[in-house]
Amino acid sequence: MNVLKRRSRMVSFRLSEEEYESLRDICLRAGARSLSDIARDAVHRLIGNGGEQKKDIETQLRLLNERIDAIDQEVRSLAGRLESHAVTFDAAGS
């Protein structure tokens, strides 16, 4: 985003009180200078970063798949432990 570029157009829209507060919270968390900066950044992401946005989505999907694989492995490990515990419990109880 080029901060030196002259901005001569203005876009105006209404928000509910909840939407405004959410946008303000995002602004504070992001350390943005203004609500306009956050809104402008969102617009840039929507229209200006086509290739970059696709790359971000691909990266997020890859990370999500890695997390799903890790969860799957953990579930299998836990299921194996439960199964061996059940066998031990059945043998002791018989």
Keywords:
single chain; 94 residues; mainly alpha; 2 domains; 3 helices; 76% helix; 0% strand; elongated
Task: Please give the radius of gyration in angstroms.
Answer: 25 Å
For the largest beta-sheet, the strand count, sense and barrel status come to: none
Provide the number of structural domains.
2
How many extended strands?
A: 0
What ranges have pLDDT less than 50 throughout 5 or more consecutive residues? Answer: none
| Percent range for β-strand residues | under 5%
Given the C-alpha coordinates, what overall shape results?
elongated
The whole-number mean of residue pLDDT values reads 83
H-E string:
HHH
From the N-terminal CA to the C-terminal CA, the straight-line distance is: 72 Å
- DSSP helix fraction: over 70%
Structural class: mainly alpha
Describe this entry's structure for a reader.
There is one protein chain. With 94 residues, the chain is mostly helical. It folds into two domains: 14-48, no CATH class; 50-94. 76% of the residues lie in helices and 0% in strands. It contains three helices and no strands. It has helices at residues 17-30, 35-47, 50-93. The mean pLDDT is 83.
SSE layout and pairing:
Blueprint: H1 17-30, H2 35-47, H3 50-93
Task: Please summarize what this structure is.
The chain has 94 residues and is mainly alpha-helical.
